[in-house]
Amino acid sequence: MRLEIQTKNFSYPVRIGVLEPITHASKVLVVSDSIVAPLHLDTLLSKLQASKIFTHEMPSGEEHKTWEGIESILESAFEANLSRKDLMLALGGGVVSDMVGFASAIYKRGIAFEIVPTTLLAQVDASVGGKTGINNAYGKNLIGAFHPPRAVHIDPQFLKTLPQREFKAGIAEMIKKAVCFNKDYFEWLEKHPLEKHLSEGIYKSVAIKAEVVAKDEREEGLRMGLNYGHTFAHAIEKVGRYSTHLHGEAVAIGIQMANALACYLGLLDNPTQERIKALLKTYGLNLPYKITDFEGFYKDLQMDKKNNQCICFILPKGLGAFVAREDIDKSTLKEALHAWL
Amino acid sequence: MRLEIQTKNFSYPVRIGVLEPITHASKVLVVSDSIVAPLHLDTLLSKLQASKIFTHEMPSGEEHKTWEGIESILESAFEANLSRKDLMLALGGGVVSDMVGFASAIYKRGIAFEIVPTTLLAQVDASVGGKTGINNAYGKNLIGAFHPPRAVHIDPQFLKTLPQREFKAGIAEMIKKAVCFNKDYFEWLEKHPLEKHLSEGIYKSVAIKAEVVAKDEREEGLRMGLNYGHTFAHAIEKVGRYSTHLHGEAVAIGIQMANALACYLGLLDNPTQERIKALLKTYGLNLPYKITDFEGFYKDLQMDKKNNQCICFILPKGLGAFVAREDIDKSTLKEALHAWL
């Protein structure tokens, strides 16, 4: 299966299926992490042809998605003396592809990169769309660039070694897209356990994202729907210092918070809220959470990069549609989120 | 006077003349340095209208064009909680505008910036074209982004406080463009002392750059002519740890090295070489230089970001034209540069 993602300046292919040979006329720097490299680097290298191949291994984990990590990747690139014609290749989850994307965006003012995503979350979401970046003391993905890859190679085989917890976390991003953009996909997900229908589920998820990103690459309208659950998720992750929750888990909690707010405002009815909850529960994503410091939590929401003083909430409007609301005051939010306080 | 610079995605104005009021609907972070701020910040602030104005002062000098400097600017931006609708405004020379450009390119994946250049070099060259970046251990401007400003406000009045040495260094970039792109401008420069014809000289220089950049924003062909003298200059600056030579001075030396190589290869005749030298001399730019370690110098040339294994030399072909040559071997170069060894 193959999809083509249209960006402002070029289009790139997303291939879904057994990894095909990747060939590049000049040098390639493969970047992976300490968990993925021992599992999959050899497989990738056996499929890769280039004039010269270099590898870089970074420590695994969201807490390493920092400037220091970028500097380390750049150092490997400078040591390899990559030119603007060469390529970086990310092998790993969203952290690796976000970082390689950002490193390649700023190396000599930008070189090309490709992605071989090895987590479900990266396959269905992070690898497509051109968002790259790192975290800092102020929050998540606050430093970065829009820098689309030149190709994405999705091989569901890589997911066989993925821990169950990570696999499930990735499903949150699939449910997110179903709720905001595509009722049919939501109903398909309700009827098709992903353990049995994985490739098709991934394909449908990427197809939705491709359509959204092609219409709004720079997040000026439609693409904002992809942030459903994410403003909350970023605050949850920040509070937990990026180590208590996987990104997808935080998104699952954020989805339920957004739903509670949507219900409170009459945008979503209770039965639909329950349906979304039930689908999350199928994959163990009905996670508990407690907001211990509401004021701090609220401040983190304000700091999220899409926000100015007012917070932009992406709220589902039934299934398959959403609204962006900036007019929710603090006390309204607090009442709507009482179940988490 | 006003020029419009066309980029792939938008165009922006370059205004030349007494600084006009700058208005912005939302927040503005003004970034300046420790030399420029005491001289000109008040003037700028008196012309600036915005919903909220923040200021950031960085230490002056090329040696501060580092990631630490970027982090410091970003910190001010996060403290001000700038949103994607807000603006950074660079007040200063090329170091300040390169850094503010890069910081704004990666802050929340990109916000707008404008430039009020206060050095001749920044007015005639650095502020136009969208190149932003920082130096690192591997060389100059090796980390960065293409991120064009939204407006450039050139007021020659700011140059009254510029030290003579810096003023002259800026002229090297004007001569550079004349030699590679425009014989008429070269002859105009020969006849018009810039002390008396400054605004017109700046206008002509920016106009040439505007045309070049519009035709080749990403440096895939024509724009490479702007690197005339620069591959050498970057090596000279690196050897001197960015403190012995001003950028323009290094460019002036680099121009003479490129000319020597061009003469050696029969691309430039001796009388023309002498004419260029004479024009440089008018402004005290016929600077002496000694390459103490040719092997190290050659390695630095190879590391320059436009190069792969072979080095791409931009060489004048008479006046008003250039060629890019990648076929010069080390011994040829050494012979051509014997005057500096």
Automatic annotation (TrEMBL), chains A, B:
<keyword id="KW-0028">Amino-acid biosynthesis</keyword>
<keyword id="KW-0520">NAD</keyword>
<feature type="binding site">
    <location>
        <position position="131"/>
    </location>
    <ligand>
        <name>NAD(+)</name>
    </ligand>
</feature>
<keyword id="KW-0547">Nucleotide-binding</keyword>
<dbReference type="Pfam" id="PF01761">
    <property type="entry name" value="DHQ_synthase"/>
</dbReference>
<keyword id="KW-0862">Zinc</keyword>
<feature type="binding site">
    <location>
        <begin position="94"/>
        <end position="98"/>
    </location>
    <ligand>
        <name>NAD(+)</name>
    </ligand>
</feature>
<keyword id="KW-0057">Aromatic amino acid biosynthesis</keyword>
<keyword id="KW-0479">Metal-binding</keyword>
<feature type="domain" description="3-dehydroquinate synthase N-terminal">
    <location>
        <begin position="57"/>
        <end position="168"/>
    </location>
</feature>
<dbReference type="InterPro" id="IPR056179">
    <property type="entry name" value="DHQS_C"/>
</dbReference>
<feature type="binding site">
    <location>
        <position position="247"/>
    </location>
    <ligand>
        <name>Zn(2+)</name>
    </ligand>
</feature>
<dbReference type="InterPro" id="IPR016037">
    <property type="entry name" value="DHQ_synth_AroB"/>
</dbReference>
<dbReference type="InterPro" id="IPR030960">
    <property type="entry name" value="DHQS/DOIS_N"/>
</dbReference>
<comment type="pathway">
    <text>Metabolic intermediate biosynthesis; chorismate biosynthesis; chorismate from D-erythrose 4-phosphate and phosphoenolpyruvate: step 2/7.</text>
</comment>
<feature type="domain" description="3-dehydroquinate synthase C-terminal">
    <location>
        <begin position="170"/>
        <end position="307"/>
    </location>
</feature>
<feature type="binding site">
    <location>
        <begin position="158"/>
        <end position="161"/>
    </location>
    <ligand>
        <name>NAD(+)</name>
    </ligand>
</feature>
<comment type="function">
    <text>Catalyzes the conversion of 3-deoxy-D-arabino-heptulosonate 7-phosphate (DAHP) to dehydroquinate (DHQ).</text>
</comment>
<keyword id="KW-0170">Cobalt</keyword>
<feature type="binding site">
    <location>
        <position position="173"/>
    </location>
    <ligand>
        <name>Zn(2+)</name>
    </ligand>
</feature>
<protein>
    <recommendedName>
        <fullName>3-dehydroquinate synthase</fullName>
        <ecNumber>4.2.3.4</ecNumber>
    </recommendedName>
</protein>
<keyword id="KW-0456">Lyase</keyword>
<feature type="binding site">
    <location>
        <begin position="118"/>
        <end position="119"/>
    </location>
    <ligand>
        <name>NAD(+)</name>
    </ligand>
</feature>
<keyword id="KW-0963">Cytoplasm</keyword>
<dbReference type="Pfam" id="PF24621">
    <property type="entry name" value="DHQS_C"/>
</dbReference>
<dbReference type="InterPro" id="IPR050071">
    <property type="entry name" value="Dehydroquinate_synthase"/>
</dbReference>
<feature type="binding site">
    <location>
        <position position="140"/>
    </location>
    <ligand>
        <name>NAD(+)</name>
    </ligand>
</feature>
<feature type="binding site">
    <location>
        <position position="230"/>
    </location>
    <ligand>
        <name>Zn(2+)</name>
    </ligand>
</feature>
<dbReference type="InterPro" id="IPR030963">
    <property type="entry name" value="DHQ_synth_fam"/>
</dbReference>
<comment type="similarity">
    <text>Belongs to the sugar phosphate cyclases superfamily. Dehydroquinate synthase family.</text>
</comment>
<feature type="binding site">
    <location>
        <begin position="60"/>
        <end position="65"/>
    </location>
    <ligand>
        <name>NAD(+)</name>
    </ligand>
</feature>
